What does this fold into?
Amino acid sequence: MKKIKNPFTEKDSSRKEYNCFGCSPFNEMGLKLEFWENGDEIVAKWTPSKSMEGWLGVLHGGIQATLVDELAGWIVLLKKNTSGVTSSLNIDYLKPVYISKGEVTIKGKLTSTEGRIAKIECTLLDGEGKECLHAKADYFCFPEKIAKAKYHYPGIEAFYE
It folds into this structure.
């Protein structure tokens, strides 16, 4: 797997304003996700804490949704070479994600493109590698020129060493 660089943390970017709940290392309450590329897939690993609990011992469904939505956004950055916004997110919660099982793995890939809509599928695996969630996301993708001008998209080369 190849580590993806987060260009939004660099000094010459809009770092002081970068406070994404999903991926900013500067957001004290955020998830602080990091990403790796594994062929067609983008992967993130994250360890849930008790503060993210819904039912006793179970990771809150809204946090699970945030994990896959954030991953889908990074898939657009890396596989569509632009930025975008969530158009729809459909989640099948297959089984509880028990916090006690430790680090979860979130992985996903671009499955198709229909006009400006990127179709993405994601899964969330618990600490034992069991699939607990499957999601399908549609992302509206901006033209790269607009993504750079209005949404701080740094260009695909910024994500790699």
